Amino acid sequence: MSVTTERSGDVIIIHAAPARLMYPSLSEFSALVSSELAGGARKLVIDLRIVEYLDSAAIGCLMDIYRQSTAAGGTMKLAGVQKRVETMLSLTGANQFLEVHPDAAAAVKSF
Question: Which tens digits make up the pLDDT trace of 15-71?
């Protein structure tokens, strides 16, 4: 798995990859996000533009990140969600909690 981060002001943008975000490759992704939250990040954007598919474990991971960021007084937003991923989020009801933006720039601007 290749996960990278960048900073835009006080917003941390986490670029998720590979195209199939699923168990067991979630550990690096989850650890990186948890580390950012532990380091004081309160505004997170998870950029999923490369992700074409995610499984139930990945949706659970996103919901856990949402819970962690909210508990820390922060906000997490998704960006670049492809249609198939959007469908999975809708089917599971995760879209009721996760704010989605067309791209990372739009998500950053929304803070």
Answer: 988 888 888 878 888 889 989 999 999 999 999 999 999 999 999 999 999 999 999
Taking CA atoms, 68 is separated from 58, 74, 84, 91, 105, in Å, by: 15, 8, 25, 22, 23
Question: Where are the domains positioned within the chain?
Answer: 4-106
User: What are 99's two structure tokens?
Assistant: 């704010």
For every residue of 25-44, DSSP letters joined together read THHHHHHHHHHHHHTT--EE
Single pTM value for the model: 0.91
Beta bridge mates, 20? 53
Architecture of domain 4-106: 2-Layer Sandwich (3.30)
